Every structure is written in structure tokens, then in C-alpha cells.
Amino acid sequence: MGLPLPELFLGAAPRPAVRAICRVFLLAAALAAFAPAVLPAQARGRPSVAAVESLLTSGSFESARAAATRLTRESPSDARSFDLLGAALLGGSPPRLLLAADAFREAVRLAPGDTVAWAGLADAGLRLGGADGEAMAREALERLLELNPAAVRAWDDWLKLYRSRVYRERMRRRLEPMASEPRVAVRLGQLLIEEERYAAADSVLDVVLAADSENAAALALRAQSAFEAGDAAAGVQYYESALRRARGDPEALWRQVVGIASPQELRAWAAGPADPERFLRAFWARRSANLFEPAASRVAEHFRRLRVARSRWALLHPLAGYQRLPRSRALNAGSSPGEEIFYQRCEARQFPGGRTSVADAARAFGLSGGALSSDAVPMPGVLSLDPQAFFGSSAMLGQFNGSVEDLDSAAATLGYSLRTGLDDRGLVYLRFGEPVRKMVGPPNAEDPFCAIPDLELWEYPDVGTVRFFRPSAVSVIGAGVSGRQTGDMVLRPMNDEQFETATEAMTRDATSVAAPLSFGAWFAQLRAADPRLTEVVVVTTRGAIAAELVPEDGAPGGVGESTNGVVALTSAAGRATLLVHARVGDSLGRQALPMRVRSFRRLAVSDLLIARPWGDTLVTRGAVLENLSRTLEFEVGANIRVAAEIYGLPASAGGQVGYRAVYQVVRSDDPARDLLRDSLTGATALAFERQRRSQGGVATEWLDVVTDPLPPGRYVLRLDLFVGDLRFGRAQASFRIVKRE
């Protein structure tokens, strides 16, 4: 194999040409170890570039590697040969990342402007991961963007890397000479926003918009700049324009909000929304902070939070396996033995020598040994724990098996952190804002062994206590377990309650706008004037109402408001979220309910409406809605008028429809349960043969119910409709009879 490298240099510093020769020599020597004894038929003769390209296209990576190796030997000054060799090494199974990187480096030495080689080097670095891979990828991506500023993938890959102010400034200096290119100018605007230089960002983005007012990415960033700078009015204007042009660059708008997306929304976006504008409008409608005010208030709040999260909780190790590889995250999602021991000593016990609860003890790993040593700290900030020193000879009672991987497959594996550049603390802040209480360090502050800042507990009133931990802060001596694969603070639930809280933290979000008002709400569905649509009547038990229906796969229909607590919303059939807000004075209340909007295009009956009687026996929808009982409570002895609409029943020549109406009423201690039952045991039943007038295919069935015989309590009222022996519809509701002193 020749002389050892030091003897080859004879003690002298190697010149650049000699270093290059040595790199080629060492690369060839390394590849020779992997070369097959007999080359495939395609590689036995003199290989050609076209032949290697064909092998790569067909997925024959080993054959391509052998042929490309021969090409590099026969044409050591041909950069294309090294490009092909690098591609073959990357595509193999397993990929030989370091050898591929060497091949690409040789290619760029021979041809510094070889974008294929720089892209390959970046790919090798991203797949290698860790600090070495990040340095490799950063160098390659920066150079690639200099050579090809319009490269979309290179920019997206660069955004995955750790971005301190130094790295942003370095990238900005590389891009500024090419700022006349709109795509480059938009990227400069993003970097300036991240540096909080909003005036400079606006200047760059305004130049782009002056030339192309339809540029969705520039409009989205212009809105972000305005919101973060505190100019909400301008932010609303620019964001509305960006939404109207979302089809032009939907990913630009999605990148801004992906950190608060639910797992269901992540999956829906990945499947490709038919209309990005409609999808994003529904996305924000579901998050309305106050339906009595413009919806953009939640958008403004999001960008204010984003500015804080970006400055405080940037992801430090984005290319660690924990962040970028679902398999690695799954393997490391559960707590390590070291974390378990730390939890038992520093969190489960509230003071030195205190008892560990049975529930907490049951979670720990069944390791055995003596007593924990408090001086086993080899370096500041890292605890090196000896399990033999803690557990004694008796095994623990069991263990808590929950992990972040179990929260939701999308939340755990689709990379919220990698796509936002935020660690888990930043994501939770982005979703819920400032916690009401934050504690750094474990509760057992009296034990010096526990004095590390790698634990944070954040408390939210409607979520619970969220636990964050830096897994690399602890390790176990002699347990065969190395440090965990991330140095970032991550969600780390250690008991059932914390697991439920972590699930909340990673699968939903909430505004910080307080909504303490307690109120009840109910709804009923009827056919709209357009038979293809449904009218949903929404009622609150108190205060003014603002409500909106947000279809799962459509645009929101708009907010309905009234001071009397009743609104009617129109929607197409399908799954939707019903948002209901109530207001009494300055006090706000919020409710959200997933629902299925019914279709009334065939023979059907509406939901049952319960109202106070009025003098006229002409029962119309308008009259019923005017007299609805908001609370569904009636005093003993009061009469009740119930009504439902029947659709699609064939009418006679005189416009009459015939059917049988059967009413049942039963006292119930659990109306929600009884409404789902097919039969109501012990119910009082009333049956009527009806002839009602039908107009436009709609007939109204109604009945006045006398409550004198009914004692106070909750009741279920059910209406079944029959033609002959065939039941074609059912409507039901619950109400309460009260006795007032």
C-alpha cells in the first residue's frame, strides 16, 4: 500500500498538490476494501459516465460504485467521476456517508463550481447528523446558495440547521449581492425578521412587492414583520393579502404556523389541501380568541409569541438523531435509567430522606444496589449516577411506560422542533403563551446532588404542569447506556399525570385571552332555504352570542352574532367544529364542539326545538325561534311547545301529508346516556295520526306538552315518525322541570 503518510511527507508540511494526491490515494484504498472480487459485466470493460449514470438510475448502487471507482482511477482530474462515486456511496445500503463526503470534496476541489458535488456534500452532512454533519452541511449549503441562489431545497435544508445571529449574518452577506433576485430578497427579509431588524426587512420586502404585488411569500413575511414589530393593523392587511394569494406559495404561509398545528392538521396538510387559502382560513377560525372581535387577534398573538420563542428557546442540536430521525426519537423517547434515578431522588422525594410514594416507586426501573452517592458528579451540569448506589437489593414495584412517542405519531415523529427551529419549551410557549408559574430545578432544592438547571416545570391553569428535561444531563455508570441523543430541553413526562399534560401540550393550543364566563350552549339542525345546505340554530343559556361553523374540509361560513343568545348558521353537510362564545358585560366565555352537520336532501326530520307557548296556533320556524327557551328549564305547571320540521314526505294533491307521530317522555338522571338509547324504559307515550300541510316539501309537526303531572327533574322527550310501520325519522331533546320557591 506504500509508505506510511508521515514517511511519505518526510517530515515536511504537505503542499496542496500533495494533499490532493494523498486524498485520492486514501479514498481509493478505502474503496478497494469494499470492491467485489468480480466486477459486474457493465464494469468489466472501460466504464463510461453514461453507464454509471444508468446504473444509478436503476438503483444498482454497488455496481455503480465499482464502476465509478474505476472512473476516478482512470480520470483522477474529472470532477464528474467523483460526483458519480459520491452518489453511488450515498445510495448504497447502508450509505457510506464519510466516503461519499470525501468523493464530493474531491469533486469540488477539481471543480469549485460543481453544484452537484456541493449538493451531495450537503446531503451527506444532513444524513450524518451531529456536530460534524452540521458543519459539513452548513459549508456545502452556503456555497451552493452562492452558486445557485434560487435553489429551493438548499434553502429549506439550511433552515433546518442551528441559526445563531452569527450564522444568519454570514448567510445574509452571501445573499446580499444577489438581492435583485426576488426569491433571494424574500430570504433576506426572513433573515432580517429573525434578527428583529424589522425596518430593514420591510424595505427589502417592499421592493419585491413593488415589482410583484402577488408574491405570497413576501406578503406573508411582510405581515410577520408588522405583527412582530407591534403594528397589528398593517399585519392584518398584509396577512389577508397573503391568504388570498396562498396558492402561489402555500408552504411560505404553512412554515409560519406549523408549530401550533394539531396532528390532524399536520396530516391533512401533508395530504395536500385542495385549496390552501380555505384550509388556512379554517385553521385560524378554529383558534379564534374572541368571535366578537376580528379573527386576526389570534394571528397577531401567534406572531408575538413566535418572536419571544425564537429569541429564548432556539433548537440547539437540530441534526441530533432525536430531532431528525423518527426511529432514533422512538428509541430515545422513553426515560433512561439515569433519568429515573434522578426523578426518584430529586423530584419524587420533596426533601432529603423523605419517603417515595408507592405510585412513584412503582414507576422506577428494577435495578438493584446499595445507597446513592451524592458526590458522583464528574463535571458541572452532568450527573453520572451509579444505580448500585441507590436501589439496594430489593426490586422496585414496576415502571411508568409512557413516552413522548405515544403522545401522537404525528406530534412525535413529524418534527415540530426541526420545522420551527424551536425546542419543546419554545413549542409549548408558542401554543399556550407564558405559564402562570415556572420552576427551574427540581423540587428537592435542599439536596446539593440535585442542583442542576436541566429541569423546568411550567404550570398552565387549563393544561397542568408540563415537565421539560435535558436527557443528556444524566448518565448511568456501568448500565451500558450512553448519554441520550439530544442536548436540548425536551418534554419528558415521568408519571401518568405528566403524560396527560404532555399530550395536551403537543396536540392543541390556546389563546391567552381570558374567558372565565361559564355558560351553557345547545344547537338544533334544520334544512336551509337552499335544500343542499343545513341551518344550525345555536343557543346560549346566557349573554350575547357569537358563533361560527368551521368545516373540516372547507372555509368557515362567517360569524353570527346576536344579543338575545340565538343565531342561525348555514353550512354544507359534513364534519365541522362549532365555536360558541358568550359575553355578559366585559366577561367572555368560549366553547368548541366537534359535530357532524346533517344533510336533509332526502326524507328526514329536523332536530326538536323546545319553546314557550304563544297564543297563535300557526307554528312557523320564525315563531318557534322567537320563543325558544334558552335554558330549557320550565317551572312546574308551565306548558311547553315542541316542534320539528319534516322534509321530503310525499304530499297529496291538496298539499297534505299523512303520518303517525309518537311522543315519549321519561324522567332521566343522565339525559346524555338516554338520548343514545334505542328505547326509553318507563316512558309515557302519546301517539297521533296526523294530516299536516306541506309547503315546499316541508311540514311542521308540533305539540303542546302540559307539565302539571311532571315532578321536578330532568327529562328526555323523543318524537318518532312513521308511515305505516316504517319509521322514517326521530327527533329528541332534553329539558328540566324546576320548582321555584
Rough outline: elongated
Structural class: alpha+beta
Provide the residue-averaged pLDDT.
84
* Count of helical stretches: 29
- Rg value: 34 Å
What percentage of amino acids are in beta strands?
15-25%
**Count of structural domains:** 4
Q: How widely separated are the two ends?
A: 105 Å
Fraction in helix: 25-40%
Major β-sheet, in short?
Answer: 9 strands, mixed
Oligomeric state of the chains? single chain
Strands, count: 22
In terms of per-residue confidence, which ranges show pLDDT below 50 for 5 or more consecutive residues?
1-14, 33-43, 351-400, 409-414, 479-483
Structure notes:
The chain has 741 residues and is an alpha+beta fold. It folds into 4 domains: 19-148, Alpha Horseshoe (Serine Threonine Protein Phosphatase 5, Tetratricopeptide repeat), CATH 1.25.40; 321-507, no CATH class; 521-601, Sandwich (Immunoglobulin-like); 605-738, Immunoglobulin-like (Sandwich), CATH 2.60.40.2550. Helix content is 40%, strand content 20%. The protein is built from 29 helices and 22 strands. The strands form 5 sheets. Strands 14, 15, 16, 17, 18, 19, 20, 21 and 22 form a 9-stranded mixed sheet that branches. A 4-stranded antiparallel sheet has the order 2-3-4-6. A 4-stranded antiparallel sheet has the order 10-9-12-13, with no helix packed on it. Strand 9 (544-551) and strand 10 (560-562) form a beta hairpin. The radius of gyration is 34 Å and the shape is elongated. The relative contact order is 0.05. Residues 1-14, 33-43, 351-400, 409-414 and 479-483 have low confidence and may be disordered.
